[in-house]
Specification:
By secondary structure, the protein is mainly alpha-helical. It contains 15 helices and 2 strands.
Length: 408
């Protein structure tokens, strides 16, 4: 996966990016890598589409202008169409943080009230557009998953027979998996389709191997996967410090969860120095009468900028993880092996009941007290503790291995 948000940047009209030296900053902060266009929204639409594909900072200026009232034919579809809505949410997040931090610094340094109010108005407009766009993305996601039959999620079964079968399968996972593999092979499914998934990396690898996900593991991805904890943290901090020159290898499915988790850890450590009480969002900086020198204001500004950039990256990683999970679910549903595996799984559960009738009957008997009528449950307590109790009872019912019985 070379492109963030699945955008193809290698278009015929791709333009080179000329980097300029960044101004020196005291302490950790963001680094500017190229000067954005002064008024990109005035460009012809085809040129604007080209520009916002390769320049995040230009995109941020356009979504800000749009949020503050700019109207132009085709602009709404350009910014919030299905292929660019994620990217625009990222740009709106950056723009919202930018206006907030600029407003705070102006207020702390005694800026003009009208300038501070202008920044506050822009911040409110961008924040409102961001929330609207997030709702739009959520609705698009729900529509797609609903059309595919994935949503709404089925409620937990109230059929005590089906629940007893499921719990028996969880109690005997190795035997159940062997049955599924044999039954699936009888239906003509390849062994790779029946691999039991125990972790997210295993699921991603399976989807790549089955052709459901195009995410080649390049040398760059291999290098990031092999980094130890401190080196990986340094890498993602350096990536967050630049907006227009990001490392898109971090968006590879095999790296997404580690990236998100490390961002959260860094945010927890950095929050006190950024004068932020939590890591949920960039809260409004309390304005005090305590005087601050120019050097103190610069340090505070840089830390708040860096903290905001890390928040922005974490939000991006969460959106990408959600999109990845949705994509994998859709790909699995559309593959012909999906229905065959469901049938093999159902047959495997039935076979377990036939092989272990005493275990199945015990589970049914324990569930019987919760039945409102035959075969229908009304559980008044959490299922996990009850299941654990039943599994302890099944352990005592099963014969001990010969070695543990002292017969070998």
């Amino acid at each position: 996966m070379k492109m963030r948000f699945a955008l193809d940047l290698a278009e015929p009209h791709e333009r080179p990016v000329r980097h300029r030296a960044a101004p020196p900053l005291s302490g950790p902060g963001l680094t500017a890598t190229r000067a954005p266009h002064p008024q990109p929204w005035r460009l012809p639409l085809h040129e604007l589409a080209d520009l916002v594909n390769v320049s995040f900072l230009d995109l941020a200026k356009v979504v800000t202008a749009h949020a503050c009232g700019l109207q132009r034919t085709g602009l709404d579809e350009l910014l919030f169409g299905p292929d660019r809505i994620d990217q625009s949410i990222d740009a709106l997040t950056y723009a919202m943080h930018d206006r907030q931090i600029r407003r705070e610094v102006r207020a702390l340094s005694g800026g003009r009230p009208e300038e501070i109010e202008d920044l506050a108005a822009q911040e409110r407009a961008v924040r409102n557009r961001l929330r609207d766009t997030e709702r739009r993305l959520k609705n698009q996601r729900i529509e797609e998953l609903t059309a595919a039959g994935i949503l709404p999620f089925p409620a937990p079964t109230d059929d005590s027979r089906r629940l007893a079968r499921a719990w028996l399968g969880r109690y005997l996972p190795d035997e159940k998996e062997a049955l599924v593999r044999r039954l699936a092979a009888d239906k003509g499914l390849a062994p790779s389709a029946t691999v039991h998934i125990r972790s997210i990396p295993e699921k991603i690898t399976r989807c790549i191997n089955n052709g459901w996900l195009a995410a080649p593991v390049t040398d760059v991805v291999h290098e990031l996967l092999e980094l130890d904890g401190p080196a990986f943290r340094r890498h993602i901090v350096a990536d967050a410090a630049q907006q227009d020159a990001r490392d898109d290898a971090l968006c590879h499915p095999l790296l997404l969860n580690r990236w998100r988790d490390q961002l959260t850890e860094i945010l927890v450590e950095m929050a006190p120095r950024a004068n932020n009480a939590h890591t949920k969002h960039l809260h409004d900086l309390a304005l005090t009468s305590q005087p601050r020198s120019d050097a103190q204001l610069r340090r505070l500004h840089n830390r708040r900028r860096m903290f905001a950039a890390l928040l922005q990256r974490r939000s991006e990683s969460v959106r990408l993880i959600t999109s990845l999970n949705d994509g994998l679910s859709l790909a699995e549903r559309r593959d012909p092996s999906y229905e065959l595996l469901k049938k093999a799984g159902d047959q495997a559960y039935n076979e377990l009941v036939r092989r272990h009738p005493d275990l199945y009957r015990h589970i049914r008997a324990r569930l019987a007290r919760y039945e409102t009528r035959y075969g229908r449950l009304q559980l008044t307590e959490p299922r996990a503790p009850l299941r654990a109790q039943i599994y302890d009872e099944l352990d005592r019912m099963r014969p001990a291995p010969l070695a543990s019985a002292g017969l070998l």
